[in-house]
Amino acid sequence: MMAKVTLRNLAAHKLRLALTALSVILGVAFVAGTLIFTDTMTKSFDDIFDRVGKGVAVQVKGKEIVSGDDDDESQRAPVPQALVGTLAKVPGVRSATGHVQGYAALIGKDGKVVGGGGPPQFGANWTDGGDDKIATGRAPQGPAEVAVDAETAKKAGYRVGDQAKVLSREKPLPVTIVGIVDTGHLNGATFTVFDTATAQRLLYKPGYFSDVTLAPQGGADEQKVLAEVKRVLPAGYDAITGTQMRKDAKSDLDQIMSIFRTFLLVFALISIFVGAFIIFNTFSMLVAQRTRELALLRAVGASRRQVTRAVMGEAFGVGVVGSTLGLALGAGIATVLQAFFKGQGLDLKGGLVFTATPVIWAYTVGIIVTMVSAYFPARRAAKIPPVAAMRDDVALPQRSLRIRIVIGAVMTAAGAALLGMGVGGVGSQPLLLLGVGALLVFLGVAMLAPVISKPVVRVLGAAYPRLFGLPGRLAQQNAMRDPRRTASTAAALMIGLSLVTTVNVMGSSLSASIGQTVDQQFGVDYFVGAENGGGFSPAAATDVATASGVSKATPIYSGRLSVDGKSGSYTTGATADLIDGANVKMLSGGTDLGADGMLINEDVAKDKGWKPGTVVQAKFPNGTEQRLTVKGVYAKSDFLAPRVLSLAAFQAHTSGQLADGILVDAAKPSPATKTAILQSLKDYPNLTVQDQSDVKKDAQKEIDGLTVFLSVMLTLSIFIAAVGVVNTLALSVIERTREIGLLRAVGISRRQLRRMIRLESIVIAVFGALLGIGLGIAFGTAIQRGAADDGLQVLNIPFGTLVVYVIVAGIIGVLAALWPAWRAGRMDVLKAIGAE
User: Fewer C-beta within 10 Å: the chain N or C terminus?
Assistant: First the structure.
């Protein structure tokens, strides 16, 4: 019997539950879209890795000497060419092949770098019998010949026999394209191959390889080959099986995809969290409106458990429908994400990949969230006494707010404490502390909101009676009538706007901090750097130095070294120019580093206990070591690494040197000088020239872009909250059918009635916006204070933007009220008066 009741209620309340299902649909769609898109990306990259190293039994490479931010081969010792012959003679090995990989970018016919600043631009040596095949033409055989992958050739409009230029660590190299390589799809990356000697000279180190792969002889077992290789392998080198090599490559990708997937799912979970408030509010109102109906069920013999199951059955139905439609919409979101990233250079060929994962998670999340949100309203429904069916005016009893106040205050305080710990970096997982702290604060404030809703709404609607007369007075009273409902509706909007406000406060503060840093620390006239922020040939500095009006052009480099088993980064170049260019204050010692000197900043000096004259033993990525002497200590700088190394030491231990930038001083800075510098870089289309204002604007533009991106990602939660306002008002109109009929009977016009509902909607939306903005300012300020020593030294609250958000909230209120107000205005007066 109760199953029939559940189905009848679902059919009877289709419109009410459809709005509730919309909250589920949107949240589930974000989850499903994220999982479908990341599955598509993973499959696309897996297809690439499946082509790599199929015939490899063992891979040999240098041990990691200095740990980097990733498993970059530049952090490993190079493999000498002479070792290849030794490895080729190992029992079970058919052939040994050395590989070189580095940066090489092809310049297109339009004079621009193919691929721009997006996907990576690889260079490598050609190896016969490797993973790739020549589709057209032949393999490169000299220093002026290259072969390129088919997609790159198509993008650039090149064919076999065409002349082109390639960027590497040397001057732009004029080359002839002699072959087109069939590499399969590279997801937007570019691939340029040279003969081995040229690749070693341009990309790595003459006479050395990045790694060596060994092909098995006949059906030789790779484990046995590995054992044989380890017997002859000198110290300082690692050997792994081909299976492990391919597994490691996919593992690295899985880590990247996990981070990316988590990033997107955070926004999806926020939307679902907001949707939970809407679902709870909707079922609470539905239960309140059906009090007599539910009491009748109890009177005719239904148990509390059966009533609970009936309401939960409705929630299950809403969850199933919402999850199904959300999964379908998720495919559309995945398509949009695929198109967006294609515009950024990540071109995933083929259609979307559908696995069981998004389906399972879509239904799991959608159904569980819906049923958990509806559980407490269902419990309240079960507690309705049967005798209530005999009363004319029956309503659910309202509990005292005292318990809510205590619980809300405790949760808010606990959340604030966790936020403080997360901001302060306490514990091993500060991000988890921040997430849990924010969740507790949201729940705590949501529980406290009914307490403050009456006084706040009274203030917000104080001008209503004077401005709008009777409709204004009724709107204010309606919003104050049920503080729990008003607070729950406003809380959904509060969450979205609080996060958007936090992002904007953080973005504005970071932008202001960067501006202050550039003003204080940018001590040169111009800075030359690559568009994608990567390295480039230091030969460009020689060309810049010849430009009219330029008095000095200093290339700067970066690297990593290890001392006492701990690695760290350094900057190097002409030391005095670096110190002057970054406006750095020397705290002790001097800048004359000689061949083995090093400067350290004040943080390193304090942490290590080093001072001028301290001698340390350093290890470099190429496997060599050198004793370095601390020559001086400088104030912390955002433009310099924690260490400044002697240029001579850097050059002695580093091959394949790529510059990070060029510091340029001019005799008299002017537009003509900047034009002359640009002209000197005509062969380097990947380089840009910036003065102080350009550097500031460029950095702030990136921060502003990130702020907008994050705000847009959070907009879905605000949209779901707006749906919640629509839902609440629509249900409120149904709940007040008789009251509305009486108002119409005593003379209120349809226009006045619609205005009353619009004004009620506006005050609820603005209340939620003010709560959210207040929390967002608090969150943003706390994070800024906690990160003041890490570059976020300026607190800048964008009040203008926040005022716009309040206005937008008011507009949301107006739009959300359109349909409920229209519906209320169309009610038949006599039928409304006779409604129970």
Answer: C
| 229 vs 226: CA distance, rounded Å | 5
Centre a 10 Å sphere on the Cβ of residue 525 and count the other Cβ atoms it contains: 23
Token couple for 239: 């050997």
Instruction: Sort 728 into a burial class: Cβ within 10 Å, 0-12 / 13-18 / 19+.
Output: buried
Tokens 């970018």 belong to residue: 105
Concatenated DSSP letters of 169-208: SSSPEEEEEEEEEE----TT-EEEEE-HHHHHHHHS-TTE
Nearest to 176 by CA among 139, 150, 201: 139
Closest residue by Cα to residue 540 from 519, 523, 526, 524: 526
Contact criterion met (CB below 8 Å) for 306 and 2: yes
d(CA 627, CA 650): 13
Question: Global pTM?
Answer: 0.79
> Max alpha carbon distance in the chain (Å)?
103
Nearest alpha carbon to residue 384 among 313, 301, 312, 297: 297
- DSSP classification of residue 802: H
Residue 80: other Cβ atoms inside 10 A: 17
What single letter denotes the amino acid at residue 340?
F
Which pair of structure tokens corresponds to residue 631?
């020559």
Determine the Cα–Cα distance for residues 541 and 660; give it in Å rounded to an integer: 11
Residue 63 corresponds to which amino acid? K
3-state secondary structure of 638: coil
For residues 98-107, one letter each, b for 16 or more C-beta atoms within 10 angstroms of the residue's C-beta and e for the rest, the string is bbbbbbbbbb
C-alpha dist (Å) from residue 380 to 386, 542, 644: 13, 79, 68
Q: In which element (H, E) is residue 695 found?
A: helix 692-735
Q: Are 501 and 780 in contact (CB under 8 A)?
A: yes
- In degrees and rounded to multiples of 5, residue 165 shows phi and psi of -130, 145
pLDDT digits (tens, 9 = 90+) for 575-607: 999 999 888 999 999 889 988 999 999 999 999
What tokens does 528 get? 């030359």
What would you report as the CA-atom Rg of the chain, rounded to the nearest whole angstrom? 34
User: Taking a C-beta distance cutoff of 8 angstroms, is the pair 280, 488 a contact?
Assistant: yes
Q: In whole angstroms, give the CA distance from residue 213 to residue 250.
A: 18
Per-residue pLDDT tens for 77-118? 788 999 998 999 999 988 899 999 888 888 888 888 887 666
φ, ψ at 202 (rounded to 5°): -85, -35
